[in-house]
Amino acid sequence: MVVSLVQDRLQQPDVRERGCLLDGFPRTTDQAQALLKQVRVEGVFFLQVPEKSLIQRAAQRRIDPRTGEIYHLEFVPPPSDVLPHLVPRDRDDEHSFRQRIEVFKAHVRRVLPFFSGRVWKLDAALEPQVIFQKICRALDHLEAPEQETAEVPHSQHSQHSCSICFDEPADFLVSPCGHQCGCRECLVAVQQHSGCCPICRGPVREIQQVFRCGREVSSVSASDAVKRSLEPVAQAMHPDLLEKLDGTVNGAAEDDDWSEDEPAGDQDLVKLKIEPCKDQTCAGEAKVMISADVADLMKREPADVCCLVDVSGSMGSMATYEDADGNVKDDGLSVLDIVKHAVKTVIKALGPQDRLALVAFDDKQRTALALTDMCDRGQELALEALDGLRPGGQTNIWGGMKAAMDALREGAASSKRHQAILLLTDGQPNIKPPRGHLRELADYKDTHPGFHFQLNTFGFGYSLDSELLLELAEEGHGTYAFIPDAVIVGTTFVNSVANVLSTFSQSVTLSLMPMNGAQLAGPVMGCFKENDESWGRAVHLGPLQYGQSRDVVVGLLLPQPEGQPEEGQVYLEAVLSIPTLSGLEEVSGKALTSLTLKANVEAVVAEARADAVSTGHIAIASAMGNEGKAAGEQVAALSSRLAEAEKESQRLSGSGSPSDSPDGRLLALRSDVDGRMSKALKGKQRFNRWGKHYLRALTRSHQLQMCTNFMDPGLQVYGGAMFRSLRDVGDRIFLELPPPKRQEAPRARTSCSQATPAPASPNMTTYYAGAGGGCFDPSSTVQVLRSAAEGLAEVSVQLRDLRAGEEVRVADGFATVRCVVKIDRPCGKPLVVMPDGLKLTPRHPVRVGSEWLPAFRLPGSTLLPSFAGCVYNVLLDRCHILLVGGVQCITWGHGFDGPLHHNFFGKEVVNALSASHGWKDGHVHVAGRLRDAAGNVVGFDFAEDAQEAESEFQSSEWMPSRLAKQQEVTWVV
């Protein structure tokens, strides 16, 4: 509809005569193609603003809900009588705005190449008058192209910028389509991962460099005779040679400023800061945050990865999961089959610059594949070695670990690269070294001091020694992940390999040195390993990732000054030691030069996170000591402290109005604490079965500030652009790989298994669960018929504003809304953001052509955390295929069979909703769903009934029935 409106306007006489300026259009490739079919686009102004500045500007925008007027607290301040009525704009908080920026960047990468050679990049951080003058000069150039203007994209570099990084010249084309669209490094990355041309999305078979000879007609004349004589030859051999002769680089403008912020080494990629967690105006104990913030780059270092796979006999057991009706079943695949599919994803996610080794262990260990380059042939060898793994024998974890470390170490000297081991086991070791695993690991590292690696452990099922797996991960500077069910094998592995490949440094040490009478008060919060030294304290932070900070909180006892304290007196100095591939770097930072401290939101969030990690460790210890009640009380007290932190974040980040929202990271963290963290401690049997394994994994992830799954809301806020990009690539690989073949041998059945035969070709989306499916973000739009001056007209309405009785557009016309359903959903749970902006739960069925697919499988979709706190669905009187944001989506109560069939949400949902007080008004608020003794969904827990009685069922969590009863995994619908 947007395209048709623009096309109609472009046909009007005034536009055809004088031209026009399109603001914010086109935003998608479809819009760009439609525009170019109709008009000639003379130029595109691409306004560049640092992401940090955009976020700061957005945080100060306010809207008057009475008038719709928009103000800015700094640039467009409101009148004093209006200020009390202002509220923040929806999704202008930092984390929501970052999501919007990521979606924008994804669109820009695809749209700008359509206008190659006609794009002016302007620094929009300059004064408005300066920007206006630059635009005017560019427009003058369009009218008089023979004039030479510094801002005009006349050089070969600015005419053809890489469509991916926008920085390097697009000197390479892809075949067979022939689009010249990128630099070598970016196109190699594309070929290794998506394999699709950035312009047409066709296959990339080869990458070829384009050489030019002579000079461009519009290029600036050379005044130097030597340069003129060399030009044809130089252009043909080295396109950048002429620029080097006269000192210009990459077509930079003559008035380009010398940037003092450009990194001169690895130490410039990390910024260290020290901030107080609370306001303080006198001496005494204060909590301070020390934060190491790593630059958000997209160019990663090569990596060596060793997949260490348990092939003991228990790995041959069936991999079970729940179907849509809550029944436990299997596809004839063993646990090892699913793990092998996940390892295949790791293999395919690596590129020719990376290497992989494969080690298997049961009671013995063997290197199935030595460290091998992951070129096409190397990947073939890795897949062959992986297919040869068979289950059998006992569990000798140390034997496998030593073989894995040997495999990596033997190749470590040949090149500088990050090295990591991915260890997956489903049991406890029954073959143990006499001195213990940790002692052997420490001795191995001492014996090979130049060998640095990261050890990530994965525990599958419930018969685990998760304490050992966590200790090994801590000693190996890695993560521990708990996989209770087959359905999350894929997500866990993909997140892990994305973390490994986005690593900046594998082991970082923070040195804290109190000065001028100040003293460190107690241990560092968050249970980091630390050593007291004569000069202060050394804190071992573990690995750092690009685009993700590492925050530490410690108590500092500030001295009572004798008289007036000296100006600029330092009370704490911090030094960060960073072993990187280019050597050891140090980043120092000094702060707290005053006894008057002013808190900020980042420090408040850091203290809350550290408090959650410390409390989690204490609760585990209490429960292990048979003090489960005390453990539950500790977590409940933590929740109360987090609520206070939310209020503090409102005070610090807003205008002081009660309508200011708490920081989204705190909301997500409290969702973790009030959700599965609390439930893990409700009952001794539950804690011993899965709670202790889960809590160890959750606290380790928060400690390292790493996203290790798609389920826990608090983890979804971690990770930079590189991590998210690598994770998206892994998502697609896992789902697009051919599914494993089911076992042909007769399958042993448990009392929970279904008697139906497994399908011949398993659907791998089953094993890539991260959230349930079924609902839409409140801001999602539908087309509604409403009265207008000339009769009825279609208008766009957000779902949160939709009402029963209205006519909405569906797949075959219009249907009447019977009921609008609002469903509570924990903040931080991810939603899929589709290329056109639609946000919905990852597994919501979407129709593409004649096929129904879960939303997260659609090309270009991105999984990002949502902090709306709810989602929406509707009941219609007919059709049941609603156009949401222009996309055909199924609604509740559809009654369809086949791939959309669901006993409850397809049919019985109407009867369940009719029991709500809100049914007669056509607006129902759902807090959770109810299950019978067999685990089948039978109804809802309605928000209006929450204070009348406490349901014996799960009231705020959405999860498969078996897991709901055991409190193992939370699923969001």
Protein described:
- With 973 residues, this protein is an alpha+beta fold.
- It is built from 23 helices and 39 strands.
- The strands form eleven sheets. Strands 26, 27, 28, 29, 35, 38 and 39 form a seven-stranded mixed sheet that branches.
- The longest helix has 26 residues.
- The two termini are 30 Å apart.
Itemize the secondary structure elements and their pairings.
Elements: H1 2-10, H2 13-18, H3 29-38, E1 44-48, H4 51-59, E2 61-63, E3 70-72, E4 87-88, H5 94-111, E5 119-123, H6 128-143, H7 156-159, E6 172-175, E7 180-182, H8 184-192, E8 206-209, H9 225-237, H10 241-246, E9 270-276, E10 284-294, E11 303-310, E12 318-322, E13 328-334, H11 335-349, E14 355-361, E15 365-373, H12 376-387, H13 397-412, E16 418-425, H14 437-447, E17 454-460, H15 466-475, E18 480-483, H16 489-501, E19 503-514, E20 519-525, E21 529-533, E22 536-545, E23 550-558, E24 572-580, E25 583-591, H17 601-624, H18 628-653, H19 664-679, H20 684-704, H21 721-736, E26 781-788, E27 791-798, E28 807-810, E29 813-824, E30 830-833, E31 839-840, E32 845-848, E33 851-854, E34 862-865, E35 870-876, E36 881-884, E37 887-890, H22 904-913, E38 923-931, E39 937-942, H23 961-966
Parallel strand pairs: 1-5, 11-14, 11-16, 16-17, 17-18, 29-38
Antiparallel strand pairs: 2-3, 2-4, 6-7, 6-8, 9-10, 10-23, 12-13, 14-15, 19-22, 19-24, 20-23, 21-22, 24-25, 26-27, 26-28, 28-29, 29-35, 30-31, 30-34, 32-33, 36-37, 38-39
Helix pairs in contact: 4-5, 11-12, 11-16, 11-21, 14-15, 16-21, 17-18, 17-19, 17-20, 18-19
